[in-house]
Design a protein that fits this description.
By secondary structure, the chain is α/β, with parallel strands linked by helices. The chain has 13 helices and 18 strands. Helix content is about 35%, strand content about 25%. Bound molecules: flavin-adenine dinucleotide.
């Protein structure tokens, strides 16, 4: 029988960071995969390094920034974003609402006049409870909503936009002023809008270099260990092919809904709350391609004629992700959980990449790798706000913590998972 002070479920960035802060003490990270990093891992295939779609470091907090950059030991570049949107058969810089210059004249005037009308009617950010479909029309007006916000978000979330709240929007959706919208449409490109104007990325090894660097110093990390059930009251977890692990404290980083599902002592109200949580599923097609010359980092595709919502050129983050003479793409398509016919999706993707000019023909593809992210974006449905206090109230009573993008069930980023891992470890040590 194995005993540990702190059991950490998951060796993604949240779990690894918690382990870093507990190193030297009694802790065990049970990670079911045979590699660390969770979604921030990199897979090598045919001379290419493929991530689980674009995984860029947005570093906002001094402490976590220092930790991450020190772990990477100089293996990190700082890059200025080049993101674009392909809509109405034209490219325009991101963000759409502040950079309409590339759009056809009719679309541009529809978007600008709609925005000014909405602004005059008093479109403010709101309190987060308003349905997205209403919020975007009130804030950005009819044109921007119709040409970008509504079709793009419908493709990404795969959830009815009239039932999606707007709590997640503030950090992620840039809200330009009227003068910026006008200047972006008829004059200069709007720089510096949004959370990701500059980003960091490892010079070699893909984003997995960070998780590998964290993992190297962890004595308590165990790969290939899947937690199948937990009993918080008894302080015991059942691990597949391993047996029981007794713990005093638990830090969960696995998706909150499945964690509640495996908690034997979860009350009925907690189970009901967890059952109301929703997420989408993202399929990423990584492609190794010959003969592509394009400086773009990534592009957004609101149009229904493209099966994907975003496509990026990973080899523009780091040349070393692809062999000499080749580039690498990641192309993301989202579902509400239904199965995807990958062969026909691939045909449609290649057709889409050709239509927008990113590739010339399918013969350029020399390598490919499909990656599936079953739980990718946590959906901000109306039920989420009511469900989370019920679940976290129970966890608090059991002195367990649930952190990270999926453990805390939110739209968050790698640095936030690192921050929460450190904070969870500090809370454990304090107790
Ligand atoms: C499409 C997409 C693009 C993204 N792009 C960016 C980006 O550009 N920049 C950015 O900062 N963030 C990005 N993110 C978010 C980023 O991936 C996450 O914030 C971060 O990696 C989450 O780390 P985590 O440790 O919280 O969770 P995870 O990485 O999900 O780690 C959880 C771990 O738990 C393990 N696990 C689950 N269940 C069990 C079990 N029962 N037993 C044992 N182990 C288990 C899993 O295998 C996994 O390794 C993106 C996310 C997605 C979906």
């Amino acid at each position: 029988m194995l005993k540990t002070d702190t059991l950490i479920i998951g060796g993604g960035l949240a779990g690894l960071s918690a382990g870093l802060a507990l190193e030297g003490g009694s802790y065990l990270i049970a990670e079911r995969e045979c590699r660390p990093g969770g979604l921030a891992a990199t897979i090598k295939k045919g001379g290419f390094h493929f991530d689980y779609s674009g995984h860029l470091l947005h570093l906002r907090w001094p402490h976590t920034k220092k930790l991450i950059l020190e772990a990477l030991k100089g293996n990190c570049a700082r890059l200025k974003r080049d993101a674009r949107i392909y809509a109405s058969k034209s490219w325009t810089p991101y963000p759409f609402q502040a950079n309409l210059s590339g759009m056809p004249a009719k679309v541009k005037s529809e978007c600008v006049s709609g925005f000014l009308k909405a602004y005059a009617a008093g479109g403010g950010p709101g309190d987060g409870t308003e349905p997205f479909s209403r919020w975007t029309r009130r804030v950005f007006g009819e044109g921007i909503s119709r040409h970008f916000m509504l079709p793009y978000n419908a493709k990404l979330w795969r959830y009815p936009l009239q039932r999606l709240t707007t709590e997640w929007c503030a950090p992620f959706v840039p809200m330009p002023k009227p003068e910026e919208v006008i200047a972006g449409a008829y004059g200069k490109k709007a720089e510096g809008l949004g959370y990701n104007t500059v980003f960091h990325y490892p010079k070699t090894g893909g984003i997995g270099a960070l998780a590998n660097a964290f993992a190297a110093g962890l004595g308590g990390l165990r790969l290939g260990l899947e937690v199948e059930s937990v009993n918080l009251k008894k302080g015991v977890a059942q691990v597949r092919h391993f047996g029981p692990v007794h713990f005093r404290r638990l830090i969960n980083t696995s998706p909150l809904d499945s964690f509640v599902g495996m908690a034997q002592d979860a009350p009925a109200a907690v189970r009901r709350a967890a059952a109301s949580l929703r997420h989408n599923t993202v399929y990423v097609l990584n492609l190794g391609v010959r003969g592509v010359k394009n400086d773009m980092h990534w592009g957004y595709f609101p149009g229904a004629e493209f099966p994907f919502y975003r496509a990026g050129l990973a080899s523009n983050f780091s040349r070393r992700l692809a062999p000499r003479g080749c580039a690498s793409f990641y192309i993301e398509l989202a579902t509400a959980g239904e199965a995807v016919d990958l062969a026909s999706a691939e045909t449609e993707i290649l057709r889409g990449l050709k239509a927008c000019g990113l590739i010339k023909n399918a013969g350029q593809v020399v390598e490919k790798l499909w990656l599936k992210i079953p739980c990718a974006y946590v959906v901000y449905n109306r039920e989420r706000a009511a469900a989370l206090p019920v679940i976290f109230g129970w966890l608090k009573a059991r002195r367990a913590l649930s952190i990270g993008r999926y453990g805390a069930w939110k739209y968050s980023f790698m640095e936030e998972s690192v921050k929460e891992g450190l904070e969870a470890a500090a809370a454990v040590l304090k107790r």
